[in-house]
Each structure stands twice: as structure tokens, then as C-alpha cells.
Amino acid sequence: LYITKKIPFKNVYLHGLVLDTQGNKMSKSRGNVINPLDITDKYGTDAFRIGIIAGNTPGTSLPLDENRIRGHRNFANKIWNAGRFVIINTSGANIKKKPILQKRDAAYLAELNKLVAEVTKDMDDFKFYIAAEKLYHYFWHTFADKIIEEKKESLKSEDLKIKSSAEWTLLEIYTICLQLLHPFMPFITEEIYQKLPLKNKKKCLMIENWP
User: Fold this and answer.
1) DSSP conformation class of 65
2) Radius of gyration, CA atoms only, the chain
3) Which of 56, 61, 119, 192 could form a disulfide with 17 if both were Cys (CB 3.0 to 4.6 A apart)?
4) What is the mean pLDDT of the chain?
5) Helical spans, DSSP H, in 125-211
């Protein structure tokens, strides 16, 4: 400000200290320093990123427990496996035109739109920890455990209306989930995005429009 006469930034987001598993400040003299590079080598960068954000309020110090990161490594695996399922089951789908959706599929997309609105507001309000938690629970418990399991039967249907609706719904929900998760887990979401059979796909997910 003194040199340029311009305000360098309008918002400052302060995070707390990253502590050891006992809640003590890390120091070389104590020998309790946890190297983040060792954690990322073991569990992946994406798991580490979302693991220290989800559920961690601004300014609150975080005891770094490997179990916390390991849990989000499992989440990354869940995202990957769900992506494989969606890609395999939509690779031959006609995605040029949106089909007439079954009532239940339309309801799922309406529910997703509510989540998008909530997460967008959380992000705008710097409540990243809440946004990450909501996305984690929606993807795992609603999309993977509920919607995918239900759509397995629809994908086998000989009724093209039912099958097309299921294909469109799965691809649409999964794509939007990747867009929402990208700020937290940029590497795995980008990798899978490049494999999706999407119409008008951007060069990379990073420059894709926010849903």
C-alpha cells in the first residue's frame, strides 16, 4: 500500500497451526515434526489437501492425525471407482441431447442443485471446511451409496427412456461433483474429467465454469 497506493487484497483467511497428533506445536527440538511430503507420498496430495480442510474452522489449530488423511485417501479411491463406473456405463450413451428424465432422476438433479447453491454460498463466505464436509457426505452417502446402486438396474433396462435417463443423470451428477470437488482435490478430479465422455468439454477442469 505504501509503495503502490493500491490495496493488495481485500480479504485475509487465517488458518491455525498444524500440530502433532497430541496437539503439541511441532519443533525440531521435540522431534515431533511431521513432514507433509511424507504424508503426501503415503496417501496422496489430494487426500492431504482435503484432509486438513474438511471440518477445520478458520484459525483453529489442527492436530495432524494420519487416520484423518487415510480416511480421505479412501474418499479419493471412492471418487475414482465411481468415475470408472460412470465412464464404463455412459461411454456409448447419446449425450448430444438431454433425454426426458424419469421423475426420480429429475428429483436427484433438483437435490443436487440445492447442494450447489449451498456449497457456492459456503465458498463465497470462506466456509471451506463446511463446503468440503458437505461434498464428502453427498458424494459418498448419496451419490455412491444410493444413486449409483439404484441406477445399476436402470442401466440394464430394455426401456431406452429409463436407460437414457439413468445415463444422463449419472454423468451429470458426477461431472458437477468433480467441478465442486476440484478446489479441494485438483489432481484426481482433473485426471477423471479428461476421461469423461462430455459434450463441449473444456481443455481442463480448472477453467471449467462453476456449476
Assistant:
1) -
2) 20
3) 61
4) 92
5) 128-137, 149-155, 160-181, 186-193
